[in-house]
Every structure is written in C-alpha cells, then in structure tokens.
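Reopening this ticket.

The earlier resolution said the output was attached, but the attachment link was broken on my side. Pasting everything inline this time so it's all in one place.
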Amino acid sequence: MASGAIYPDLEGRVVLVTGGASGIGEAIVRAFARQKAKVGFIDIQAGRGDQLAAELGGNVRFAPADLTDIEALREAVAGLRAELGPVGVLVNNAAHDEPHATEEVTPAYFDDRIAVNLKHQFFAAQAVLPDMMAAGSGAIVNLGSISWMSATGGMAVYTAAKSAVLGLTRSLARDFGTYGIRVNAVAPGWILTERQKELWVTPEGEEAMLAAQCLKRWLMPEEIARFVVFLASEEASACTSQHYVVDGGWV
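Inline output:
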C-alpha cells in the first residue's frame, strides 16, 4: 500500500498521539515519523511502546501511562513536551471497543467506558491548548467511530462516548478557532488491526462488512493514518469543526 504524500510543514513539528503503541495509533505514529515530525506518544502498553520508539528512533519518544488516570496523562504530556518542545498537533486516538450488555452495565463500568473512550480526549486537549494558543496555530484530530451512525448494538456506552467526540470537536473548534487552532474528528469504519483479527473477525462478520461497504475490501490502519496526517498539515488549513467519515462507504 502506498505510503502517502509528504507535507513539508510537518517536518520538525511536535506531534502528540494517544494510544500510539498498536493498531491505528501505531500507524499514525509511523506516518508522522515518516513526515520527520517530532512524535511523542502515550499508551498503557509499555512493552510495545518502548519497542516502537526504539524501532523508529530519531525524534520519536514514548511515555507509558494509563489515560484514564488524568494526573498520569498530564505527567506524560509534560514529560514529552520537555523532551520534544511545545505541542503543535494532538491526535486523540486511544479507545477501547469492548462489547457490553446494557442490562449488566453498572455505574462503575459506565464511568470506566467514558474514561477510556472520551474523558482523556478532553484533558489531553486541555493540556496542549496553551502551547497552541501561544503559537497562534495548532491542529487537533479526535478519533471517533461509525458505530453510532451505523446503529451498532451491544455496546451502548461505547457508542454514546464516540458520538460525544463530535460534540467535543465542534465546541473546541468554536472556542479556539480565534487562535488559529483547527479541530476535526475522524470516524473510522471497520479497520483490520491486529486486535480486530484476534477478537472480532469471523467469516460471518467479514461477509456483513463487505455487504455494507461500497468498497469490497478490508480497510487498513495506514488509510486512517494518512487522512489524519493530511488534517494536521497546512494542506487542510481551512478545515475545522468537521466530522470526516473514513469507512469505505459504510454509512
């Protein structure tokens, strides 16, 4: 699969990616590293994060943290900022699409799903917005999901959190556009990551996916990464407060 375009304005720019050790997040980290950006990423998977940072080398740094622990998130952002410099791009990627029966959801489980799929996006943005405001520019890309648009069942709290990503995106875009900060959301379809292969992909599921999509093939993490990089670049300088669906024509 082609690697995508090179955007000269991203060279040397400080990029922060959450959930960057595997899946779509890993593809995003690799894509920004290819742009010669300074990339810091955060993930709870310490081993995988260390391995990816060592492989990419150069200006790629990893900070292990549980993003549901907001103080740990803040400390990780501060540590990466100290190493790389003020943050110019934030990609809020981290999420966890665990199925759950509505009848069995407890208040504690509800709060946990919101924390892992939504809350950290707000506080990561809060942590880097001062850098962007001081610079008079910045780009935030929040990863959502098509699940709430395609009426996916069996994970009501997850789909509620992912639908809220759009509201967060549009509010931040409105509040901080006067500082030259652009905020957009990307809703991926069913992307063939390692986790999807291990936990979700079945012959029946693949058949349903192919029937639903206009493109009759699996979508790959790199395809989401390339679009995220575009939104972070000056090629998307007029794009903000928008919700971009990258799903092969599912919804």
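Reporter confirms the inline version is readable. The chain has a mean pLDDT of 93. The chain has one domain: 8-246.
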